[in-house]
Give the backbone structure.
Amino acid sequence: IIDGSQFMIGSLMNLGSWIIDIEAYHKKANNVTYYPFPRLAPGSDFFTANHKMKGIDLLVKKQVNRDISLCIGYTLSESTIALYSASTIYYHDKFSQPDNVTLGGSYVSDRWKLSVGWRFASGLFGRSVSILPVLNNLRNAPPQPNGMPPPGAMGPPNINQTLETVPERFDPVHSLDISASYTIPETASRNW
């Protein structure tokens, strides 16, 4: 049975044309069930893990005039995982991106709204809990006479060299989002 908890504290300040929002959080999810292989295999087992996430979010928004607003956001977070639920050793989660920065703006004209946002996120952990056990198994396994990976290791013969080159953290991610929307006017026959 999955159980969890979430605690948050924050503040929202409206200072005229400025809005400042800050929040801190701590989340736990226990007994999350995983299947360790890419395909279902006879005789293989599921395992459970516990997750902890904590962080702080900051958003600053400025209403420049009636039509234009700008914002900047920053998130500092940590996501960790403990395998097999009984373990108290937590590892960095594969999808943990500690630093996230967002810059955005919007322009409203009559019924049209144009929004643009740029996001930067630090790269995913390369040597996460998903890769380290496989890499350790390959390092500690006796050499195979045919050059193939040791039994239980999935992948091509050169998987050991491939995994050795995995960086501590992958490259950062940048994204640009652009949207335009139009509000349909209400009429006497259509009030939506």
Q: What stands out?
A: The helical segments are 132-140, 159-164.
